[in-house]
Each structure stands twice: as structure tokens, then as C-alpha cells.
Write a structure and sequence with these properties.
By secondary structure, the protein is α+β, with helices and mostly antiparallel strands. The protein has 4 domains: 7-179, Roll (Sulfate adenylyltransferase), CATH 3.10.400.20; 269-359; 386-481, SWIB/MDM2 domain (MDM2), CATH 1.10.245; 495-582, SUI1-like domain (Translation Initiation Factor Eif1, 2-Layer Sandwich). Helix content is 33%, strand content 23%. The strands form 6 sheets. The chain has a 6-stranded mixed sheet with strand order 7-11-10-9-6-8. It has a 5-stranded antiparallel sheet with strand order 1-2-3-4-5.
């Protein structure tokens, strides 16, 4: 359920009455917990937050977060513990054991299949279908996953341990775990598991599992349909031995195979660490310290990103630069970060003697001058369109243009309209003989240009009134001419790029940008460019009531940055940009 990112709807502090109700529900859902355990788990003096989220499939889930760690989540009016809570109370739920390689598949969103379950000597725990269960690894009693039993224990036995065992809801290292402090499972020894792993029976079971996987692969390679539930289940499990402790791969082929197994998040974490090491080793000088963390990212880390890759902290497991640097400081002691002024962090010290940093080799093919946003490079050849206002002949004024062979729907430049009307007036001898600045109104001009109340009153009009009234009764349209493309004519008036600032929950500001498509701009490129320029999240949302259009939403008041991008980089004329006056006067993001 949490194998993909979720969307936070609200985050509020729980009320006293709701806290008491939660304690009662917790006591009812987990009878093994005593009132003292619950009081220790949810102390009254600690701030408890209720976070409502939407999972990637749209499920509404409620999280209960204490000290930044989600302890419980509520789905369909039922409470489930997270791994953070189970690490404090590992015996809270019935436990199913599995092998460590299986964990990676569970993290990826797979359910726990019965062939991957290790059956202890005491037998499987007694559960009914739908009961909440936890999953542990051999040799460690610390749970790594939470789920619901797909079948009862008796059915598992009758199925000869084939098929689906647990519907997995939450795992260690998924996005719910990442919502907390990202701590690792504690080491809780399990004597029986140790004996089991050292036994010949364990080796045999693993070999049998690998044999079953090979059989499934062979069947699929010959185009046969795999109907055996054991094979189907084993396809979803990784039962091959990991080689993390065996050193580097012996060949380039094995290295590529390992890279393919990495998730996008793991790849971004590795790229982030590589750029961090590269920047410290070859970019940062001692004379530059203290160095603003934002400057370190923008001027040093981005420039160390290899060509063809894009560094995006939002796609890493850290999400924020501050969290990444905190780990680098507390766990590895590469740098020391300090808040020299309120809300502004700086790197004040770098340990260049650190063995890991000294042993790091700077990649040879790193493009130092690579810009952080590849899309900006792609858009270097962009030229703004030439926009011309045109007028389309309407049914009302069509009689004035018939002499020029212009029928209803014909598009004309304002100068052409002026020329045709002038010819019409002169050809019909409507110029006033006493004052050539006036035009005599004939029946055709009367029907085309005058209102009903003016029929009996107006006999003459000035030339400017004739032209303005004619244009006012025609349909306005505009022509877009992009370099190297055929002209495009569209109805109505040209819409300016609209920049606005809106408020979201907790009085947070967001900047909205609309109508980029009119000017041939890609909203996705604009969003990505702004995201890296201001280091704030940016998303695309559909425009209500407008088909095939999206708006860019970026966190904070970024009107000034948006204006600079459109005016200086894309050279859009100021008259076609609306809302530049809404920039934050203080120059700070709100």
C-alpha cells in the first residue's frame, strides 16, 4: 500500500477526547497491551498528530504520529501498527517468518507467498482469514512488515503451503516508514531461528525454493502457462543470495545486473552521495567555510552531477537537503552543519581526512558544467511566437466587405479592415462634402454600425468612429507564428500567461502559472526548471474547465523567479504576462 508515494491531506494535533478514544480503540484492537503499556506508548504530555493521507491508489488512511514517527495507521476503520510500534512490542501480533532476500520483494509491493514462509518447530501461529499479522526475518524477531492473513492457518496447511499467505500493507523501508525518522530494525535474537538457519533442513528448503523458481522460468521461456500456485508465488519472491558482503562483482555483466535491481530511489541516493563526495573533494575549499548549505547544493553538488543524469533530492529517500546533511554529520561525521542565523544552515567544518572521503575517486566523465536542469538545455532553441491581432468578418458587417470578396469568417489585419472600409465609403460617395472628417450614414452602414435607438438620430459619423465600430462588431482572433512553423489562427483574444498566488492549508503560499501552452511552452519543463532554481516542490494540475491544459503549482511565492524565467530566459514580452505585481515585496518566500 505504501510502496509508492502518498499525498498528505491534513496534519493536526489530536484533541484530548480523541486521544482517549484512540487509547480505548487500541486496547480493544490489541488486548495483549495493558493500560500501562498504552499510557507509555501514548503519553498524555507528548504531542500526538493525526495525519490524513491518500495512498497512491486513492485509499483514505489516517496516521497517528508521535515524535515524528507514525505508530499506527487506520484503514477502513481498523487500526494497524507500524514497524516503529512493533519494534517496541514485537509480540503484539501473530508472527510469520521468512528469509532475508524475500524482504526486497515485499518492499516493492509484493504479498508474502506461503512457499517463502519458514515454518518453525512449534508450528505456524493460529490465525483466521483477515487477522492482522507481522512478518519477521530469520534470526531477528524485529518485525519488518505488517499485513492481513489471506487464509486461515488450517487452510495454509491444507494447501500444502502453496499460494498467497499474507496481504502485505506496510513494510520497513516503504514510504510510510520513510515518513518517520528512517531508523533501522533493532537486533532481537531468536534462538529457534538461529538453530533453524544452521540446520540442513534450512539449506534443503532454500535449494528447493531455488529449484522451483528455475522450473517456473523454464516454463515461461517455452511459452507455457504457469498454473502451479507454488510457481506463481515463488515468482514474486527473491530467494537468491545477496552479494553485498562478497565484495565487488567479478565482471561488468554482474555489476550491470546489480544496478538493474536498484530502485529509482536507491539510484538517486547513490547519485546524491557521489555528488556529495565529489563536491567535498574537488570543489569546496577551506577558505569558503562556513558555506551556506543552499550554495553548496546549487554551486557545487549540481555541477558534479554526471552528464545524462539529473540530481533531484525530492526523489531520494532523504527528500530534503537538511536531512541528508544531518545523516552525513551524525552517522558518518563527514561534515559539521550549524545554524549560524535563524533558519539558515551552513557547513562550518569538513573532515577531509575521513577514510571514505579520501578513498573516493572522482569520476572521469563527470561534466562539471552540466546544468542541474536538463530541460533548460533542451529549451535553449526556444523563440517566442510572433503574435498578431486579427479580426474575423461577422454576419453583421459582412455587407461592408462583399465588395472586397471577403465573406463571413475571413480574417483580416486591422490595416486591411481600415483600407476596405475606406474604399467602401469612397466608392459609395459617402464622404461628407462639407466636412471630410465625417462619413454619411447610408442604410448599409446604418444596419451594420448603428444601434436601433440611433437609427433616427445619427446621420454622420467621424472616420475614427466608423473604424472603431466596425472592429467592435467583428470577431476578434489572433495569429501565432513560431519560427519554422506554419501560422496558427485562433479565435478570441490572446490569453496572457497568468501568474497568481494562492493560500493552502496552514496559510502556506503557492504560486500558480497558467496558459503556458498558448506560447508553446512545456509546463513540465517550466515546473522542473523552477523546482531546481528555487529548490521547492512543483506539480502539474489540470485546469478546471479547460481541456488539454495544465497549470504549474510551485510552493511559496515565486512570482519574482517565474517572471525572471519568462522574461530573461524565454523572452516573453511583458505585456503577455499577467500577475508580475504579485511578487513578494520582502523578496522572501512565504
Amino acid at each position: 500500500m505504501f510502496s509508492k508515494p502518498f499525498r498528505v491531506k491534513s496534519n493536526i494535533v489530536i484533541k484530548g477526547s480523541d486521544r482517549r478514544k484512540l487509547k480505548a480503540d487500541l486496547l480493544s484492537a490489541f488486548p495483549s497491551l495493558s493500560p500501562d503499556d498504552i499510557s507509555e506508548l501514548l503519553p498524555n504530555k507528548e504531542e500526538l498528530n493525526v495525519v490524513k493521507i491518500y495512498a497512491h491508489k486513492g485509499e483514505a488512511v489516517t496516521l497517528y504520529v508521535l515524535q515524528k514517527n507514525p505508530l499506527l495507521f487506520e484503514l477502513d476503520k481498523r487500526l494497524y501498527p507500524t514497524v516503529y510500534l512493533l519494534w517496541r512490542y514485537p509480540a503484539l501480533l501473530p508472527v510469520f517468518q521468512t528469509w532475508p532476500p524475500v524482504l526486497q520483494k515485499l518492499i516493492g509491493g509484493a504479498d508474502l507467498m506461503l512457499p517463502g514462509v519458514v515454518v518453525p518447530s512449534r508450528g505456524l501461529p493460529e490465525v483466521n482469514q483477515g487477522d492482522c499479522c507481522s512478518v519477521t526475518l530469520v534470526n531477528n524477531r524485529a518485525p519488518v512488515a505488517v499485513g492481513k492473513a489471506a487464509v486461515s492457518t488450517s487452510e495454509m496447511t491444507s494447501l500444502e503451503m502453496k499460494g498467497r499467505g499474507l496481504f502485505v500493507l506496510h513494510t520497513y523501508m516503504d514510504y510510510l516508514w520513510a515518513f518517520g525518522d528512517k531508523s533501522s530494525p533493532p537486533s532481537l535474537s531468536d534462538t529457534e531461528s538461529e538453530d533453524l538457519e544452521n540446520s540442513e533442513e534450512c539449506e534443503t528448503s532454500e535449494q528447493e525454493a531455488e529449484t522451483e523458481v528455475e522450473k517456473c522460468e523454464e516454463r515461461q521461456s517455452f511459452g507455457e502457462t504457469v498454473s502451479d500456485p507454488a510457481c506463481c508465488g515463488l515468482e514474486k519472491l527473491i530467494l537468491t543470495q545477496t552479494e553485498e558482503d562478497k565484495g565487488e562483482p567479478s565482471s561488468e555483466l554482474e555489476e550491470e545486473h546489480q544496478e538493474e535491481k536498484k530502485t529509482p530511489q536507491e539510484e538517486m541516493d547513490a547519485l546524491l552521495l557521489q555528488c556529495f563526495f565529489h563536491a567535498l573533494k574537488s570543489k569546496v575549499r577551506k577558505s569558503e567555510l562556513p558555506l551556506l548549505t543552499s550554495t553548496f547544493l546549487r554551486n557545487h553538488m549540481f555541477s558534479c552531477c554526471p552528464s545524462g543524469k539529473q540530481l533531484d533530492i525530492k526523489k531520494s529517500s532523504y527528500k530534503k537537503l537538511s536531512k541528508f546533511l544531518q545523516v552525513m554529520q551524525q552517522q558518518y561525521h563527514f561534515v559539521r552543519v550549524k545554524e549560524l542565523s535563524k533558519g539558515v544552515e551552513s557547513i562550518v567544518e569538513v573532515d577531509w581526512k575521513n577514510p571514505d572521503l579520501r578513498s573516493f575517486r572522482v569520476p572521469e566523465e563527470t561534466s562539471v558544467e552540466t546544468t542541474p536542469v536538463q530541460e533548460e538545455v533542451e529549451e535553449e532553441s526556444y523563440y517566442p511566437p510572433e503574435i498578431t491581432t486579427l479580426y474575423s468578418v461577422s454576419a453583421r458587417v459582412e455587407p461592408l466587405f462583399i465588395g472586397a470578396n471577403k465573406r463571413k469568417g475571413a480574417t483580416l489585419h486591422p490595416a486591411e479592415v481600415r483600407s476596405i472600409i475606406t474604399d467602401y465609403v469612397k466608392n459609395n460617395e459617402l464622404v461628407d462634402k462639407n466636412n471630410k472628417n465625417y462619413v454619411t450614414i447610408n442604410p448599409t452602414l446604418c444596419d451594420c454600425l448603428l444601434e436601433k435607438m440611433e437609427y433616427q438620430e445619427v446621420e454622420f459619423l467621424k472616420w475614427d468612429d466608423v473604424f472603431s465600430r466596425t472592429l467592435g462588431r467583428m470577431n476578434e482572433c489572433y495569429q501565432l507564428v513560431f519560427p519554422g512553423r506554419a501560422p496558427v489562427i485562433k479565435k478570441g483574444h490572446v490569453e496572457p500567461i497568468d501568474i497568481s498566488v494562492a493560500s493552502r492549508g496552514s496559510n502556506k503560499k503557492v504560486t500558480l502559472i497558467k496558459n503556458l501552452e498558448v506560447y508553446g511552452l512545456n509546463p513540465g519543463v517550466i515546473a522542473s526548471t523552477l523546482q531546481h532554481r528555487v529548490q521547492a516542490s512543483a506539480v502539474l494540475q489540470p485546469v478546471p474547465g479547460a481541456k488539454d491544459r495544465v497549470l504549474v503549482q510551485i510552493q511559496g511565492n515565486q512570482v519574482h523567479q517565474v517572471g525572471n524565467l519568462l522574461l530573461d530566459h524565454y523572452h516573453i514580452a511583458r505585456k503577455y504576462i499577467q500577475g508580475l505585481d504579485k511578487a513578494s515585496k520582502s523578496g522572501k518566500k512565504k
